[in-house]
Fold Ribosomal RNA small subunit methyltransferase E.
Amino acid sequence: LYVQGDLAPGAAVAPTLDQSRYLTQVMRLKAGDELLVFNGRDGEWRVSVAEVLKKGVILRAEEQMRPQTYGPDLELIVAVVKKARVETIVEKAAELGAKRVRLALTHRTNADRLRLDRLDAIAEEAAEQTGRLDVPVVDDPVKLDALLDGWEDGRRLMFCDETGGAPAVSALTAAGDGKWAILIGPEGGFSPEEGERLRSLPFTTAVSLGPRILRADTAAIAAMTLWQAAVGD
Ligand code: SAM
């Protein structure tokens, strides 16, 4: 169960209506059952074993634990596409272990207005459902150029290029684990100038996801799955 705020030992936690429905109707928990409560964001999080009560959930005092560092470090950068597809991409990124989803504004980006609070809620729900103990951060849309200008040292960028690139798995296994980002373009693809810049950067590898042109959400899921298979955990 994802909660915001501190997990003070012995504190009572009031699940939201959706969470209560999920606990009782989907997970069929009843009073006395145990569950994990976490408040993970940005790597700072605690996990507590809690007990379901008739009303709400109470944290057990004795089991406060700070889990080990959590999985390999993947960021998904996706050009803003139609809202429904962005929502799917955020949900799948949470399931497939991305730590962060960054929305990029590119030359051919779709102008759909996105609601970040809704994307956050989708990320939280997917994190709970998938059993991970942190919630991926979803950043506000930023220009791709600004993202590349401020690129974090030591993070490799797997640039998914439908016009051709190395087979994704060999690129991933060749570079090995460590910090990765996956970049997916918009419905209209990257512009020639964007492609040129991306191919010129030292930290990028242009990869192909196969001979067919995939929709952005399919490409994001395929790329994250290949990353997971090659270097994830
Ligand atoms: N330019 C494409 C076209 O001509 O229809 C459309 C781009 S595609 C819908 C959206 C994004 O998914 C691409 O920019 C790329 O990042 C990724 N993508 C789709 N198919 C791919 C493939 N076979 N290999 C690598 N990336 C792919």
